[in-house]
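Structure ticket #2291
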Amino acid sequence: MRPPHSSRCFNVRGAGIKFRAICMVVLAVAAVAVAAAPAGAQAGGFGDVAEGTYYSVPVEALAELGLFAGTECAEGFCPDDPIDRKTMATWVVRVLDGADPPAVSESRFDDVDAGGFHAPFIERLAELGVTGGCGDGSGFCPDQTVSRAEMAVFLTRAYGLSAGADPGFVDVAGDAWYAAAVSSLAASAITGGCGDGSGFCPQDDTSRAQMATFIHRAENRAAAAASIEITPIGRGVSVTSEGQILVELEAADVVPANPLDLAGKTLLFTPDGQSGYSRSVHSLAWEEDIGSPEEDNAEIELPFLFRFSGQDWRSLFLSRYGLVTFDEPYPFPRTGPDRWGTMSQIAAHIGSLNAISALYKPRLGGWSTWDAREAGNTQHVSRRPDRVVITWITEDHEFYVHGRPHAEKTRFQMVLHADGHIAFNYAAEPENSEEAIRDGIVGLFPEATQTELIARIPDSTDLSRPVSRSSWAQHEVFHHVHPKDHLIPLACRIIDALGDEFDLLVFHSQFRTDHQFNGSWWGYYPGNVPIKGIGQEEHHDRKSSCSARMRGQWNFPIWVKSRYVANLDGGGEYLASPKGLWHFGHEFAHTWAASVGYLKNGEREPLHDGAHWVTELHTAAPYPWEEEPQGSIIGGHFWRENSDGTFTPSTGLGGLSWLDLYLAGLATPDEVPEMFILRNLQEAGGGWRGPHTGEKEVISIEQIIAAEGPRDPPAARSQKTFNAGFVYLTLPGEPPDPDLLELHALFVDGAVAYWRHVTGGRGSLTTELVLSEGS
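Resolution: structure written out below.
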């Protein structure tokens, strides 16, 4: 069994946000003469460990702790030499205990000299239950090399790792004596296999470099977990002392990622003369002359007839979303439920068009053309007699990116040749790979009938694998991880573990998800706690399958590194993101709004568009998050009346309007002032943010009550305090990152403060976890 973590110091990378030193006193290695570093020493003081190799950082980190003292070789570290069992025992014991064990007077193993250097380490390894010797157990085989299969068993025992899902290594049989240990290492991200990752090479010797790397990964994982006070509950559910709920997902919960693997390559499609294409992959052939910038949706005249989808084309339409179309500009689905789709679901948007996609993302470059210009995201066209080169220099929209702007943009090209060849060029990734675009849809989309569309869109081929067999339509969907079945089953798992104690559940993830809109729609349960008079009676049959009290939950997790969680302030510190707090309040407010109308000339007139207050409605917030006048977080605007009779909207993060407070049971009808709606609203110069003309129609709360009936229960008997479960998701075998967990805690504190502020202190949130005895 692994002893408690104590007295060690390891640096754990804080996932690109900062470096945290998770410190435990440096190894107190027994006095052992350490050879002087050879001339020209590099990483770890070893001349044969070059900087930049996969093992240089692990060797350097462990060398600083004295882990290798007395086990060096004549050349230095000898990274490629196989490690033997006695050296492995010494390294593992030092890293587990933080000190060299005392000398031993006798050895339990016949082939271990009690007076030898390694004997105390071998004896201690046996005491810890990591080894029982070799063969019949009478010996240890100290000079025998350690296979990768044996290494997996040693480390699994040493670190007490839990078994994970079958990683699918082709050379590891399910009934092999080491299979469970290999799955544990893979689930803990300590190994990714060997070679191309399809196998584990269990019978190969473990090199000294590999052993150092495996130990370093295991230590980082253990140190991260040791720095957080976590109480396990069951089935992957744990809680922290800060009131956070941690859930380690199971393999069956997620669809694995398929990240873009074409960086630094050219993908070539060669026509076969029958509307089909063969495919091949080459070294990058980047076109340096990228031409002049072009506007989004611009029609680009071609210097030749280009054959595609059985037709000859003289022009195409250029989209900032990473594709070109031939019949019409790309009709982007800006609104509606499609914006919540996964990348595979979104592929259907281009599957019915004549389109060629170099890297389609539904919000690539910005939410609007204005966003794209502000961010400097551009597309360029260079026309040559024999080819047209289209270049995108762009980045993810801010809805997706983490709390700092990109240092570099992603660059890719589409080259259309006069002879029908099509090439996609993908520049090498930025130095910080997190800033690279790793998802998108790549391929050829000749116009398809609906039957053909249904037949082929769900499929995705491996474009990086060359093929000679021609295909008329071929594409690959590159995507991040995404949880299956939304989060409803997961919510039930949490409630099963922690009890029916939550009024709402809010989900964040340590991993980037596949959803292209970095938010979550509100899955609400008006039937759990029915309220009359707020326009929801027709939905009172909608209840949670596992909770009698929950008002609702997020249906998608939000990546904890997105701008919907935290932003850098001017001093380099992270603060809870105002945009994220607005989003939290907005979704929670959907528990009560916006579904009401008002009575006008005996008829019910809606004040909403189906989910939000209509833009024309004046929704002044009495307790706005920002100082200037603001409208409701659930829609409408604060419409400032100008002296010339026009109206100008105040845009910002808003708050709850008096109408919102009434619907939420936090205000009485008498407190709700008159509001107004602007009929025939028109811009009057200055664009959307400028003045508008409109006919002002005053609306009273009495008209709303006449249409909907009085709120029941009224404010005097309504619930004011809500217990929220803030859930932090990690992938199978992945420990919570300490820095990101801190960001999550920062968001939780911010959300509690935000709700208290925008309700004027009338409402509050708690994050109480009621653990059963023995939890």
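Closing remark: Residues 1-43, 399-404, 449-458 have pLDDT under 50 and may be disordered.
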